[in-house]
Amino acid sequence: MPPAATEARFPHVPEGRGHYESFYLRAVDPGQPRGAWIRYTVHKRPGQPPRGSLWFTLFDANADGPVASKVTLGPHELSAGDGSLVRIGDSVFQPGRVTGSAKTEQADASWQLAFEGAPPLRHLPRAWMYRTPIPRTKLESPSPAATFQGELHVDGRRIPVDGWRGMIGHNWGSAHAERWIWMHGVDLDPPGGAWVDVAIGRVKVGPLTTPWIANGAVWLADRQLRVGGPAARGTEVHESPHRCDFVLPGGQAEIRGHVAAPTKDFVGWVYADPDGSEHNTVNCSIAEMRITVTQGGKYAAELGTSHGAAYELGMRETDHGVPLQPFPDG
Fold it and tell me: What's the pTM value of the predicted model, to 2 decimals?
């Protein structure tokens, strides 16, 4: 992971500005529909010191639903540097290794994971977009396809992680999009080794909200092909809390298809913006995905996975039917 692409921003944010930042991972067992989603976040309201949170979810399609926990610590427990991208208490997210814990009444979770992965993906198509205030959300995947080794401990149960597949992500900014979708799929078959990593957002501009804009890439036949972009025409997104059907043209390839999972396999969270507003967010990291890839209007590949995809929807509505975890944010 090149340091320039993953350096933590929060130590350099002026006191009067608001900011959020996340380093996160998803890891999925290739042999059965279970996986983990782990997130280290920094949240700073204008004029206030930053706070750090550790988020953990274990997904298992054979269980009644996900197991989740979240711990928030004050500014004295938060740091970066000395080889770490972010440190919250004794939990550390660093290149090649993530260790930590989140013990609450809901779950007692800890993790020790090592990983190696593919070269980074920067979702925004222009380098200047990472240097300017607009867009207000920046996104990259330091490892859009990663392999994990280690173990999880959840409520006294040890879960070996041996060759689980997933990704490493990083986002930051002054505000979340008004509405967003993140979808990721790894080891899509056939051919094995293909992956897709796309963020789709609608942004508030004054009283107006933009149409959906997609940014990301698909890896196919040893090539990274960009998808979407601000100038793309013909983007279609039909989203619900448990499924998204999409057509994403632009860039070097067009992808169309769906990502979906049963409602019971989603976890629900509150995400806060630095200005105090909130979104409800639902996430499933063991989702099904089926996509068709075309290049220059010509068929390139059919890709799919039964449980190796992630689908996240961030929204203002609260009647989505996914129980929210009992943890505030911000």
Answer: 0.96
Structural contact between residues 271 and 314, judged by C-beta atoms closer than 8 angstroms: yes
* DSSP strand pairing (236-240 vs 223-228): unpaired
Over the stretch 212-244, which tens digit does the pLDDT of each residue have? 999 999 999 899 999 999 999 999 999 999 999
Question: Please, where are the H alpha helices in the chain?
Answer: 3-6
What distance in Å separates the CA atoms of residue 315 and residue 330, rounded to the nearest whole number? 17
Q: Do residues 312 and 281 touch, judged by C-beta distance below 8 A?
A: yes
| Domains by residue range for the chain, with CATH | 10-315 (2.40.370.10)
Only one residue has tokens 């274990």, namely 58
Q: What are the tens digits of pLDDT across the range 161-209?
A: 999 999 999 999 999 999 999 999 999 988 778 999 999 999 988 899 9
Q: Cβ of 17: how many Cβ atoms within 10 Å?
A: 13
- CA 189, CA 303: separation in Å to the nearest integer? 5
Cβ–Cβ under 8 Å, residues 282 and 312:
yes
Euclidean distance between CA atoms 220 and 192, whole angstroms: 9
Q: How many C-beta atoms surround the C-beta of residue 299 within 10 A?
A: 9
Element counts in the chain: helices (H) and strands (E): 1, 24
Asked if 37 and 285 touch (Cβ cutoff 8 Å), the reply is: yes
Buried b (16+ CB within 10 A) or exposed e, 266-298: bbbbbbbbbeeeebbbbbbbbbbbbbebeeeee
CA distance 197 to 226: 10
